[in-house]
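Protein in question kept underneath.
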Amino acid sequence: MSIQKALSSLAVVSMASVLLAGLTPVVAQSQPPPPPPAPQAPAPPLQPRGPQQQARPAFGDVFGRFRVSLPSGATPMGATYNFTIPASQAQVGITAMTQDQMFQTTMQNFPNMMQQMGAKIESNNPRDVRGRQGQFVVTTLKDPQSEMVMRSLNVFVPGPNVWVQVTGPAQSAPQLDKTLEILLKAIQF
């Protein structure tokens, strides 16, 4: 690959990274320096024109349904992805959190929170997830209106701060277990 092609490829990758990060791209091109400006009278000092407008971070959902400019200083805290898998009657939630303390608190408080909601904790044990020490929490909860018993399989993985949840009817427990195993074998950190 020629040096020119390599530099062009690097420029494209850099531009994509800047755009994905939500930054304003700046394009620099190699050009001869401009001629020196002609001498002029000194310019008057610039007067402020009101509050400075800084670029605000913008966020758009993956489905393209909305886009929003966030207030200045907004910091991403986490993202949740939800899926349904009809064959196993499973609802899958995968949450990633950027703040270690928030993740640790969620992982530690989850069993108690579920018990306060009336759930039964079937399991709360350490579990290996692709070489990382995770926490495996299984709960069942009876819906008082429909009398349906729901089962929730939860795996919390500190480090990448990822929470994988597979939920569905308790009578579908084998399919829910299989769905969780497939996800945990496929997930990459």
Observations:
- Helices lie at 3-20, 100-116, 173-186.
- Residues 1-34 have pLDDT under 50 and may be disordered.
- The CA atoms of residues 34 and 60 lie 40 Å apart.
